[in-house]
């Protein structure tokens, strides 16, 4: 019987980005763990963000593209409850070893995690407008 960890690694796919001998442990974690999870969960993140924006009285949808970018960044930085929900969606896909590594340096890894997610959402801002429920 396959373990949870091996199934997770299979579902997530390959490392995204370069990992070399000179890579820091944080950079390695980012490319081997965070990027594949963010890619896997991309559609869900888009829908979760749209749902959030709708619940916030649709303000997001009336903004200019530049203000939408700022809105995405601001929401993920300032709304701790929403941010923690997003973090949970990522951490749920960690293996036991990855979680052990994560808790050693969670503060810096959380920053990387949220920065990657913000950039991912910002790069898809036009797609976010097209989603409908």
TrEMBL record:
It comes from the Bacteria. This is Glyoxalase. It comes from Flavobacterium amnicola.
């Amino acid at each position: 019987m396959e373990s949870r960890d091996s199934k997770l690694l299979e579902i997530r796919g390959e490392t995204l980005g370069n990992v070399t001998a000179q890579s820091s442990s944080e950079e390695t974690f980012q490319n081997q763990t965070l990027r594949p999870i963010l890619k896997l969960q991309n559609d869900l993140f888009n829908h979760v963000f749209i749902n959030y924006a709708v619940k916030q009285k649709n303000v997001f949808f009336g903004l200019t593209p530049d203000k939408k970018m700022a809105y995405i960044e601001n929401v993920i930085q300032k709304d701790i409850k929403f941010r923690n929900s997003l973090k949970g969606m990522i951490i749920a896909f960690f293996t036991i070893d990855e979680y052990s590594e994560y808790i050693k340096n969670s503060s810096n890894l959380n920053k990387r995690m949220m920065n990657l997610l913000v950039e991912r959402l910002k790069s898809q801002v036009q797609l976010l407008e097209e989603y409908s429920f």
